[in-house]
Amino acid sequence: MAQVKPMRADARRNYERLIEEAAVAFAEHGEGASLDDIAKRAGVGSGTLYRHFPNRQALLEAVYVDAIEAIAMRADEIAARLPPGEALVEWLNELSERMIQVRGLKTLLGSAVTDGSSAVLTACGSSVKGAATRLVEAAQREGTVRPDVEPIEILRLAHGVATASELANGEGKHIRRYLSLLTEGLRPERRRADGGPGPEN
Prior knowledge:
GO terms for molecular function: DNA-binding transcription factor activity; transcription cis-regulatory region binding. The protein is mainly alpha-helical.
């Protein structure tokens, strides 16, 4: 197997500056920020940018991979201190908030859980889906989430909550309300003793 040649010190500095400036540009302008402008802000030519990042997707991954992994890790931290049903809702809230706060993350996270074209995205997607699976299955065992709910559905719904909140005011103020409406549909239907649907609370 061929060994990966380590970067020279100047190449490493260019790489790190590009990621720093890309993070700022994506935060200001979203994932459609000009790559040429990012290169200029980093003090390098466009050719240098493309040597490190052959396309926009590669640059987005480099900027946001740590953020996606951190989101996945938060699931276990929250689960350690809250009951399963509450832990799931709290994690979904944090997930939705991060998708709004970090521009470009929502698009990349959506790709991470559905797109297998990139090894980096596949790894990130596996981490997030694994986190969602642990939380959903724990809540199902607790009886606070319907047994037919799939973890991937939860992630898609969180993506939708973030999008809806952005459309409402662009700041994510409605996330908890939308999640409250969403979680009502996740709960198992209560049944009366005669087998009919129970009264709504």
